[in-house]
Specification:
The longest helix has 32 residues. The model has no long low-confidence stretch (mean pLDDT 89). The chain has 3 helices and 9 strands, in the order E-E-H-E-H-E-E-H-E-E-E-E. It has 147 residues and is of the alpha+beta class. The protein folds into 2 domains: 61 residues, Ribosomal protein L9, N-terminal domain (Ribosomal Protein L9, domain 1); 79 residues, Ribosomal Protein L9, domain 2 (Roll). Helices cover 37% and strands 32% of the residues. The protein is elongated. The strands form 3 sheets. The protein has a 4-stranded mixed β-sheet with strand order 4-9-8-6. It has a 3-stranded antiparallel β-sheet with strand order 2-1-3. Strands 5-7 form a two-stranded antiparallel sheet.
Length: 147
Amino acid sequence: MKIILLKDMAKLGRKFDVKDVSSGHALNLLIPRGDAVAATPQALKKLEAAKAKAAAERKVQDDLALKSLNELQGKTITMSAKANDKGHLFSGLHKEELAAELLKQTRLQIETSAIKLDHPIKETGEHMIEVNVGDKTVKFKLAIEAA
């Protein structure tokens, strides 16, 4: 039986894939759970429209992210964190904290996966941070002060 997947499924396929599975698996598990629909001609037309809509939304999001990155280029973001006398932070700063601080200070929504950070930042001072979206890379300066 041919089905259209409505979400990513491990060992089966990605969202919007048309797959051929056994009738029992489709009728007893995938379709009742809402993970798939039968691949009828009407459903295939809807599939093409949904793919086009998803591609357009992804393009708009990428364009907004690139515009956001241009605003971030060369800026200095200042954060304060608890540190000891030698300038070592009590807890390292991770991508999640950086993304939250960027949203707070610049109102730019940047995904944590776009922030390139090899390891958590554990010292005060200035650090250069890279943000990659698509093929565009932007660097900004992060200044960490002891609180």
